[in-house]
Each structure stands twice: as structure tokens, then as C-alpha cells.
Amino acid sequence: MSETLFLGRVLSFHRRPEGAHDEAAFTYHEAGAVHVRDGRIVAMGDADDVRKSVYGAHVVDHRPHLILPGFIDMHLHFPQVQVLASWGKDLLDWLNKYTFVEEQRFAEMAHCEAMATGFYDGLLRNGTTTGVAYGSVHATSAEAMFAEAERRGMRMIGGKVMMDCHAPEALLDTAQTGYDESLALIERWHGKGRLSYAITPRFALTSTPEQLEAAGALCALHPECYMQTHVSENLTEIERARELYPDAPDYVGIYERYGLLGARALLGHAIHLEPREIDVIAGTGAKPVFCPTSNLFLGSGLYDDAGLRARGIQGAIATDIGGGTSYSMLQTLNEGYKVLQLRGQQMHPYQAFDWITRGNAEALGLVQEIGTLKAGSVADMVVLDARATPEMTLRADRIETLAEELFLLMIMGDDRAVAQTYVAGAAQKDV
Ligand code: GUN
Ligand code: ZN
């Protein structure tokens, strides 16, 4: 049995804060501790209280840093680690010029394995302990993605992309092979260790109706799996979706028709939605995923968080590597904050840190396991240092409240502000 007591300023959310004064939405212990036994949290609270029931534990002292649940990245592309920062005009230009070229390299297992190492190193250095990732069309990419996550004991969700038209030949499966390979991957990986499968039709532009039907059949056969795709990211993309599926009422209606929507459906971007599409998302419980660094980088548009929340739709938030420009969920909040500013909406730092931890875990239906520091959760944690750089220190000297500190972290912070990351209680960064 291994017992560890982590000391630091401990912060964990219970629900989405309503705003600046909603301190009942979280637990914060200035002199706090997290007691971890065999990778799970046994207790979290004031250090003096927690210590009373701990005997002979190894003590790790993170004071004066903050200890939070590990970050959750709800949408990113494993085969795009070498696409990130590619110059392009807009989504479709960028996909054709860079992404559809680079993803072809993932046919080779050796390449997938080499990239998987860099991918997870990058996530963990940035404090991200769970990701929901797309592979390439090749089963090898999903194999490597799952195998490396399993080796590291990470809570990962992902799948091989299904795409059978309008892309280079070398990136196409068929309705049948996409179904068969996805099914084999589900049987091999879903529920193994901390892994879950996401059925992954890339988007309506690269799937024939037969393939979307096959994806829908997989969702019906395995309702315990997630489903991830892209929707309404870019205006030209939307026009093209309407041309390809003229009988569908709108873009969301394409996925609706093939039975892809439900509480476990994750819809990347979801920017330019029409009223009927919002009704369908609200009705099915599908989760839009806000990808701010990507939306700004590709010039896609401004996500309407308040508009969706007003309809009871709690979106998730993500990097979208490599359309997104940073592995850091802190930098994702920074850009997200600015996107919402342009919409006349405000993201309070309490809401922001709830979003990348508990909020995203809730969107996955996984709050019992990840996203908080409650007893019983797996000890996936991040340790944050608001004085990680001289410039941050200069600013931090004028800070008085937790909200100010969190805001500094999300605006100026990145991997340098991550002092340590824990997966099931095991340290991931060399310090
Ligand atoms: N739509 C379809 N595929 C992709 C992708 O790889 N990245 C982004 N940002 N949008 C997409
Ligand atoms: Zn994407």
C-alpha cells in the first residue's frame, strides 16, 4: 500500500460558479492537504484535519503552490502534433494543405509510437491528465494512442477517424472497413484500464451517407462509447455540408438523421448554429466543444457560450491541437476569455477553472473519477505556481485574492506555471 500526503493550497469545484461571489461553488483550503492511497484520493481538506487520520505517509510539500484536479482537454488531434503552427487561409485550405498530408504518415506504427511519446509528454507537461482525442484514419494511430495512455495510467478517450470521401486516397477507409476497424478497436480498448472509445466520424464532408449510417449503427451497438465529430466550424464548410446532404434540414440535422447525437456526443466547434440546431443539441444532450485557440487561428468565428448556456447547454472546452495553437489549457482559457469578450460575454476565473476540471468531467459523465479532488476520485492532479516567471512574479506581488491569482494564471500562465502533474498519484514532471 502506498500512502502520500500532498501539502499545498487546495482548490476543487462542486458545481459551476455563478460568478465572482459564488464561493459556495468550491472548496478552498489555504493550508490544505490531499491524502492519496494507491492512486486514489482518500481525503482532502485542512492539513491539520487530514493529518489526524494519516500514519506514516510520505509527505510531498507543494506549499505555497495551488493543487487542483488535472486538466481535461475535450478535443484534440493526436496526428496533428506536427501540423500545429502551419500557415493557412482557413479551415478547408489548412486541412487540405497540411493536415491531410501529415496524417498519412500515421499508417506506420513506428511513426505513431514516436509521436505518441511526444503527444503525452506535451499534455502532462501542461497539466492535462485526460484528453479526448482523434486518431488518423489508420487503426495503428488509435492503437498507439491507447497503448501509450495505458502505459502511463492515463484516463484517455479516443478513436480512429472514419473518413471515406473527399480526401486523399491514402486517408480513406470505406463504410465497411471504418465500421469493422472501429468495432475491433472498441472490443480491444473500450473499458480497458482507464480508456474509453469514441466513435469518430471526422465530419459530414469526409463521410458518405453510408459511412454515417455505419457510425450510427456502431453508436446503437455500443451506447456506452462516446461519439465525436465536428460541426459548423466554418461558413464554407457549412455550405459544403448542405450541398452534400441536401435533404437534411441543416448541418446538425445530418448527424441527427444518422443517430449520432446523444448525451455522449461531442460536437467540436459548434460556432455558427441556427435555432433549430440549438434545439436539437439541447434536446439530445449533445455537448458542443469550444476550441478558442483554433477558432481564432483559423479565423473560424466566435463561440456563443452564453447563448448556449441560456438554453441549458453546458459546452466543453478544448485545445483542438493542431488547429489549436497551444497544448496549455491555461492558454486555452486565455484565448477563450478574449473570444467571449468579443461576444460581450465574461468568463470569471472561478468559472474558467471549474470548466477545465469539473465542468469538462461532467460533460463526459466522469465526475466520480476525475475533475475534482473529492474522496474516491483518482488522484489526477496539477500543481500551479503563479510566480513561475519574473513577469508573473512582478504581477503577483500586487495580488490579494484567489480570483486574482487564478486570473493571472489563466492569462499569463502556460507549461511553466505547472510545477507538477500527477496521474493516479504518480509525479510526471522532472523537477
Ligand atoms: N474539421 C474536420 N477535421 C478537422 C480537423 O482536423 N481540425 C479542425 N479544426 N476541424 C476539422
Ligand atoms: Zn478537431
UniProtKB/TrEMBL annotation:
GO terms for molecular function: guanine deaminase activity; zinc ion binding. GO terms for cellular component: cytosol. Keywords: Hydrolase, Metal-binding, Zinc. Pathway: Purine metabolism; guanine degradation; xanthine from guanine: step 1/1. GO terms for biological process: guanine catabolic process. Its EC number is 3.5.4.3. Catalyzes the hydrolytic deamination of guanine, producing xanthine and ammonia. Binds 1 zinc ion per subunit. Residues 67-425 form the Amidohydrolase-related domain. Its cofactor is Zn(2+). This is Guanine deaminase. Pfam families: Amidohydro_1. Belongs to the metallo-dependent hydrolases superfamily. ATZ/TRZ family. It catalyses: guanine + H2O + H(+) = xanthine + NH4(+). InterPro entries: Amidohydro-rel, Guanine_deaminase, Metal-dep_hydrolase_composite, Metal_Hydrolase, Metallo-dep_hydrolases.
